[in-house]
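Slack export, channel: ligand-projects

TW: morning all. Re-posting the request from yesterday since it got buried. We need the structure predicted with the small molecule present, not the apo form. The ligand is zinc ion; the SMILES is in the block with the sequence. No rush, but it would help planning for next week.
GE: picking it up
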Amino acid sequence: MRMSKLFGHTLRQAPSEAQTTSHQLLLRAGMIRPSAPGIYTYLPLGRRVLHNIEEIVRQEMEAIGGQELLMPLTLTSEEVVGDLCRQELASYRQLPTLIYQIYPKFRDEYRARVGLMDAQEFIATEALSFHPDAEDVNGFYPQIYQAYANILQACQLETIAVETEDGHEFIVLCEAGRHTFILCSECPYAAHVEEAKFAKPESPQETERATEKVATPDCTTMAALANYLGVPLDKTLKVVFYATKEGEVIIAAIRGDLNINETKLKNALGIADLYTATEREILAVGAVPGYGSPIGVRGAKLVADDSVLLGCNFVAGANQDGYHLLNVNYPRDFQADILTDIAQAQAGHACHRCRSPLTETPGIEVGHLKGSETIGATYLDQSGKARPIVMGSYGLDLARLMAAVVEQHHDQKGIVWPAPIAPYQIHLVVLGANEEIVAKADEIYADLEGLGYQVLYDDRNESAGVKFNDADLIGVPLRLTLSRRTLEENALEVKLRWQEGRETIGLDELRDEIKRHRA
Ligand SMILES: [Zn+2]
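GE: finished. pasting the full token output, ligand included:
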């Protein structure tokens, strides 16, 4: 491709709305352009990268027997999939089978801030496997897991696999990620902060003492209370009041050194929404804001974190303004309707598997694998009996993957594409408009293309500075430069994008040299 003809140009500066590195560099390098909020056009350079990623996906899917198809976007995919299975899969002889598609997808939740990472429309790959039973899905799962891991590895994208309730998510750890992940500093444990488990520290064991009411003026926060009474936070009991949509008051209780995780709380209750209770709602169940506890309340549901079992003689609110109770014990003094883990894991907590310290880091999901679900279609088993087809589903967000690669592979000058997905293999730069040099560069360009290389040829009438800056920005792995000086030596300058050094090689050695770099 001659750069003088290339559709799309580089930008000196990224538009101010681009706040993440990948968004800035993809815009600046002429890979993408915004078309509407959250919707991007892939310019030819960006389309080539995406195409290369798609080809890697195809290779890996075909290697485990996947067959590509394309489903219509106008219907929900569950409907389409159910219908397809009813039409095409009748007998156990056809199972298991794997289909996949690469298609534009829409995201409901949308934030323009992170560019391609969170584009509203993006290119996704979705694979679906159909099985005679759940056991068969589980048997196939390691294969698809490995295929997805291979795709990510081929793109040189470092990810961690996070276990979810029904499978795995592949997570890229990067500053631009908008979710928080908890990782163990020693073992492979990793989880969404909303789901992360940890080993709760035990408090020293004591014998239970009798409850006693004490005056605690102006102690409406846990810190003020612990300070006033001179007790550590883990000797206090914290409560938070919530209300459901239906107006039921939920009291969440937890040891004072820990925090409540609202996702875990909602999961424990089996509901989607929780609101902060109003003062009126709190008073209505017999509790007092700032001095609240589960003791003596009526008509509220109590969810207690299991940390209430890991200590005793807690200080808790007396449900009376200006007073707390000493020596509150579970279950002697209050009983929970639900006793489970609703605590938020934080950096510094201990891993529940190996007790090493946990760390917190931002990240973003690029793919997910999900185990068995039924889809309302059946097949006939060996005895002619109808049985439900069980499906596994596996998705990758290729646009996010592309942006994540840029987050992990760039320097101050621009993108440093991993060779397998780079838009071109070779960036040929010619310096000087002299007829002889241009003729030689044209010849080299034709030669390289003839050898089957994908070459971006900077034949523009621009300065060396502009050409080199653009080459660095676009990030093609191998740069070849022909100038008056090198031509005098019948040579070319060779530079790898990820290395500082340059070397000069004779024109006759060019073929061997390129082969060496590709190997
Ligand atoms: Zn661990």
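GE: first-pass observations. The chain has a mean pLDDT of 92. The domain at 424-518 is CATH 3.40.50.800 (Rossmann fold).
TW: perfect, thank you
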